[in-house]
Design a protein that fits this description.
This protein is an alpha+beta fold. The protein has one domain: Glutaredoxin (3-Layer(aba) Sandwich), CATH 3.40.30.10. It is 40% helix and 27% strand. It is built from three helices and four strands. The protein has a four-stranded mixed beta sheet. A hairpin with a 2-residue loop joins strand 3 and strand 4. The relative contact order is 0.28.
Length: 78
């Protein structure tokens, strides 16, 4: 199972990114656990300075702004 973390404090872009990731994983049938991380200290451990950030299986794949649907599909191998 793929572990996906959405890093952000709860802004509109963070919520939109979480919804996009959840929608893409569901539509593609990929088994994934999507977790929202809002704690600043935890976000800083990943070195993400602008949110939203996306971490897949421990690797930061995106930071700042809402990713495109195509990007998310590529990350999860959809």
């Amino acid at each position: 199972m793929t572990n996906i973390k959405i890093l952000g404090t709860g802004c509109a872009n963070c919520k939109a990114t979480q919804k996009l990731v959840e929608d893409v994983t569901k539509a593609s049938g990929v088994q994934a656990q999507v977790e929202k991380v809002e704690d600043i200290a935890s976000i800083m451990k990943y070195g993400v300075m602008s949110t939203p950030g996306v971490v897949i299986d421990g690797k930061v794949v995106h930071a700042g702004g809402i990713p495109s649907r195509a990007q998310v599909e590529q990350w999860i191998g959809a």
